[in-house]
Design goal:
Layout lengths: L7 H9 L6 E2 L19 E3 H10 L9 E5 L2 E3 L12 E5 L2 E2 L9 E6 L4 E2 L2 E2 L4 E7 L4 E2 L3 E2 L4 E2 L2 E2 L4 E3 L5 H4 L5 E4 L4 E2 L3 E2 L4 E3 L1 E3 L4 E2 L3 E2 L4 E3 L6 E4 L4 E2 L3 E2 L4 E3 L1 E3 L4 E7 L4 E11 L4 E6 L7 E5 L4 E6 L9 E2 L4 E6 L4 H8 L8 H13 L3 H16 L4 H14 L6 H20 L3 E2 L10 H9 L11 E2 L3 H30 L1
Parallel strand pairs: 1-3, 2-4, 3-5, 4-6, 5-7, 7-10, 8-11, 9-12, 10-13, 10-14, 11-15, 12-16, 13-17, 14-18, 15-19, 16-20, 17-21, 18-22, 19-23, 20-24, 21-25, 22-26, 23-27, 24-28, 26-29, 27-30, 28-30, 29-31, 30-32, 31-33, 32-34, 33-35
Antiparallel strand pairs: 36-37
Helix pairs in contact: 5-6, 6-7, 7-10, 8-9, 8-10
């Protein structure tokens, strides 16, 4: 392109390029680029001029060239497809008529902060330093699948439109930010991001952290997930404090070694899965001070070191089969945790109770662990045939399945008291008067109650009438107590 073909605005940009000098067309630092469609020729730059500068622009000895423009209206499409740009690209607060095409391009740094764009196509883009879309307003999709970027800053940006339909403005489905298979050496910074449409990070790799603090993510009307991040590998944290998600948050299969922090978040997807972490490996999952989740929570087969979820945050329906965790926080009594296990969609799952008991043992709360084990056996009893349920009720009522051994002692003392008083009032007749020992109502009652130990009283006396029936009751009760105690104690010893 000959320099004589340039407009006055383009000439200013062309002459500033060799020395990396700034060209600012704005009338003030707070000017809104949303009105860029009405900007006149005095601040209009053709995309082909920018392309010519970036790929083969003039240079100056001893200077480092660069494109540094603010407040310009860019007409046409900035097409750098497969190109290699050795200069920094900084187009701040600009208005783009067409979505830039950066597929397969290699750039040093690309800064589009505060700009207004109809979209951005950057599949397989390579940005050695940074891709900065801070506070941009982008009505169409941002496509960066397979991109290799050191750091992505998209904080404060607004993507999509609440009134847009996927067929009109999102030809690739309901995703407004498409980062599948992308690799980020450092961080993905999206604090305060507002997205009307799905954010996808499937199979992405992030060397540092993903930060979605204060973000608002809205799934499209026909979409399930607001954040679709399956099989993501994160170097440290995935932060989403105060996240507002209208649609599901899906991090299934992901590897997050430190924190998945959803403190103070509001997750809402009443007709589907509001939170899915199935098969994920997470250091700590935080939902501290979060609003009650609206929708299903699916944590099947997830492995989490610390699970910090208050009881009131959990929804009515859960899928937690195979969920493993080491520590639960905050530390709550088992009576507040056990109702959650009743919410498992598939019904009774022994592993859930074993895992909860193990978590209490990890923090040294053996009493709580025993309470959970007892609740597990009671829940299991409801799945048994009638006769087995009856036997379970006996074990529960007498010794609490071995977890309440003092119950047997209580029953024994009560029956001993009843028998001793009854037989003290009415001595049974001796079988052989000349050979019978002196009658002792306490030891006679113990002889009836204890099936193994004998004091020589039971065989020497024979009660009659109602007292005979009382003796039969004591004998049967003694055997039941002995059998259930032995079964409960042996079960308890096996667990140890």
């Amino acid at each position: 392109m000959e320099i004589n073909d340039l407009t006055e605005a383009e000439r200013r940009v062309w002459e500033a390029f060799p020395g990396d000098e700034a060209v600012d067309f704005r009338e003030g630092p707070d000017e809104d680029p949303g009105g860029g469609a009405s900007w006149g020729p005095e601040r209009t730059v053709r995309a082909e001029v920018l392309r010519a500068l970036l790929l083969d622009g003039p240079s100056r000895d001893g200077e480092i060239a660069g494109l540094k423009v603010s407040g310009a209206r860019v007409t046409g499409q900035l097409n750098l497809k497969y190109g290699t740009v050795e200069h920094g690209i900084r187009l701040r607060a600009c208005y783009f008529e067409q979505a830039p095409e950066l597929y397969g391009a290699t750039v040093r740094a690309l800064v589009l902060s505060d700009s207004v764009l109809p979209g951005l196509s950057g599949g397989a883009l390579r940005a050695d330093l940074v891709l900065r879309l801070t506070c941009c307003r982008i009505t169409g999709p941002v496509r960066l699948p397979g991109a290799q970027v050191r750091a992505l800053f998209i904080n404060g940006a607004r993507l999509g439109s609440p009134d847009a339909s996927p067929s009109e403005e999102q030809p690739d489905g309901d995703a407004v930010l498409y980062l599948n298979h992308a690799a980020f050496t450092a961080d993905v910074w999206a604090v305060g991001l507002i997205a009307h449409g799905q954010v996808r990070l499937n199979d992405a790799t992030v060397g540092g952290q993903v930060n979605l603090d204060d973000a608002e993510l809205h799934a499209s009307p026909n979409g399930d997930y607001a954040l679709h991040a399956e099989n993501v590998s994160v170097g440290s944290d995935l932060r989403a404090m105060r996240l507002r998600a209208r649609g599901g948050v899906n991090v299934s299969g992901s590897r997050i070694p430190r924190q998945l922090n959803l403190a103070y978040a509001r997750l809402s997807h009443p007709d589907g899965q509001a939170l899915r972490t199935s098969s994920a490996a997470i250091g700590e999952l935080w939902l501290r001070e979060a609003a009650p989740i609206e929708g299903l929570v699916n944590m099947r087969r997830a492995q989490i070191d610390l699970l910090h979820v208050p009881a009131e945050v959990w929804p009515e329906h859960l899928r937690i089969d195979g969920l493993g965790y080491r520590v639960l926080a905050p530390h709550l009594p088992p009576e507040e945790r056990l109702p959650l296990l009743e919410r498992e969609e598939t019904g009774y799952l022994p592993f859930g109770y074993e895992q909860l008991a193990a978590a209490y043992r990890t923090v040294g709360d053996e009493a709580a662990a025993r309470t959970v084990q007892l609740a597990k056996l009671r829940r299991h009893r409801r799945t048994l045939p009638r006769l087995a349920r009856f036997w379970g009720l006996l074990q529960d009522g007498t010794v609490g399945y071995g977890f309440r051994p003092m119950r047997a002692a209580g029953w024994l003392v009560a029956l001993l008291l009843v028998g001793s008083v009854a037989f003290a009032l009415e001595h049974p007749a001796p079988l052989k008067a000349d050979e019978a020992p002196d009658f002792n109502p306490v030891f006679y009652t113990l002889d009836l109650l204890l099936p193994i130990i004998g004091f020589g009283q039971e065989g020497a006396f024979a009660p009659r009438g109602g007292y005979q029936w009382l003796s039969y009751l004591l004998i049967v009760t003694g055997w039941i107590l002995a059998t259930t105690t032995a079964a409960g104690v042996s079960r308890s010893l096996r667990r140890q």
